[in-house]
Amino acid sequence: MKHILSLSDSDLDGFLKSIGEKPYRRRQIYDWIFKKGARDFGAMANLSAAFRRQLGEHFTVTSLEHAPLQVSSDGTVRIDMAASDGVSFPAVILKGAREGALSVCISSQAGCAVGCAFCASGEGLKRNLTRGEIAETFLAAGDYVARCGGERNKITSVLFMGQGEPLLNYESVAGAISDISSPDKSALGQRHITLSTVGIITGIRRLAADGFKVRLAVSLHAADDDLRKKLIPRAASKVATLLEAARDYAVSSGTRLTFECVMIKGVTDTPKRLEELALILLRFISERAAFVVNLIPFNENSRAASEASYFRAPDGKDLEAARDYLVSRGIFTIIRSNKGRDISSACGQLGV
Ligand code: SF4
Fold it and tell me: Per 3-state DSSP, what percentage of the chain is helix, strand, and coil (rounded to 5)?
C-alpha cells in the first residue's frame, strides 16, 4: 500500500478530486499527521467515516517498524527502523548545546554506495529511502519527544547526516525537505535543515535551481585530490570544482557553508594537510560566502577497523592544535562533539 507521505501535494489533490473530496481536505490530513500526531486515518476525527475508510483503502500513514530505542549516557537516542522489505536504517536524536535544542539526524538511503573509508555505512547501498520513509523518520523523532512529555514540534533542527548520500536520492530528499519545512506540515525553516554531501555537483546545482535554502555541509576531509580519493573512493569531482559549486549554492541561497573534515591521526591532521585545507578554502570560498569548518574526530567502527586499521583519532591536544591553526588563518573552526559513541551513533558509526 502506498505511503501517503510519499505523495506530492498535487498527487494528493488529484486523489481527492478523483473521489469527489474538496481540496481543503489535504490541509486537514496534513494537520492531523504533522501537527496532531495521528498515525492512522481512524484518528482523524473531523473527516467522515467513509472518507477515512477510503483513505485507509489506498494509503498508509506509517510503514516502518521500530527496534527498541538505544539511549546513550549523554542522552543521545538511536532509533533503528525497518521497512517491510527487510531493509533497516537508523535515526539519531541529539540534544544541542542550547537549552531546549533538539536535533534529529536522519538517513536518506539504507546503506550507502559512496564507500568512505572511515564510515560504517559505506558497505554498499541497499536501496534509496522513499519520501514517505524519510518524512516518517522525522515524525518518529517528534513522537519520541511527545512520549517523553515534550511537544512533538520541538525538534529544532534536522541533519541529513545519517546513512546515505542525500543528493544520490534527490527526489525523495527534496520531497521530505518540503514536508519538514512546509507551513502546512512541520513548518521547520529550511535554515534549520542541514544536508551533508560528499559533493554531488549536479545535486548541489539542482538544489540551487530548485530554490532550496537548506544549509549545505560538504564532507571535504582533505584539500588534496589524491588523499580525498583514498578517503572517499567514489568521490567523482575535483576539490576545486566541488568548492565552486558549494560557493555558488551558498551565494544563491544566502546560507552559510559547513566544511566537515574527519580528523584521522597522521592522515588528515598533519600541518601539511591543514595548510592545504586553509589555502584552498581561503582561495575558493572566503571572499564570497560565509563558512565554518567542523573538525570531526575519527570514530572507530567495525568497517574502518577492517579496511583501514591504522586510522586513529588524534589526541585532544592535537585536535585543539588543528583548530587553533585554522583559526589563526582566519577560518572559523569548531571541534564537533562526539555524541552517542557508546550506542554506535556518532559520525561514521551508523552502520546497522
Ligand atoms: S560518510 Fe556519508 S557518504 Fe560516506 S559512506 Fe558514510 S554515509 Fe555514505
Answer: 40, 20, 40
Last residue of a domain, which of 33, 60, 87? 60
How far apart are alpha carbons 284 and 282 in whole angstroms?
A: 6
- Residue 123 Cα to ligand 1 midpoint, Å, equals 9
In short, whether 119's Cβ falls inside 6 Å of ligand 1 is: yes
Measuring CA to CA, how many Å separate 283 from each of 54, 289, 341?
58, 11, 35
Residue to probe by mutation, ligand 1, list 116, 221, 303, 307, most atoms within 8 Å of CB: 116
Residue type at position 253: S
What CATH number is attached to the domain comprising 38?
A: 1.10.150.530
Q: Is there a single domain that holds both residue 36 and residue 116?
A: no
The interface pTM score, or ipTM, of the predicted complex is 0.98
40 and 79 belong to one structural domain: no
Of 60, 81, 101, which one is at a domain's C-terminal end? 60
The response to whether residue 159 sits with its C-beta less than 6 Å from ligand 1 reads no
The protein residue with its alpha carbon nearest to ligand 1, atom 5, reads: 122
Co-location of 323 and 258 in the same domain: yes
**Residue 273: inside a domain, yes or no?**
yes
Q: Is residue 114 part of a domain?
A: yes
What is the four-CA torsion angle of 333, 335, 340, 346, rounded to 10 degrees? 70
| 105 CA distance to ligand 1 middle (Å) | 13
Tell whether 86 and 192 lie within a shared domain: yes
**148 is annotated as an active-site residue:** no
- How confident is the model at residue 151, as a pLDDT? 81
In tens, the pLDDT along 5-63 reads 999 999 999 999 999 999 999 999 999 999 999 999 999 999 999 999 999 999 999 99
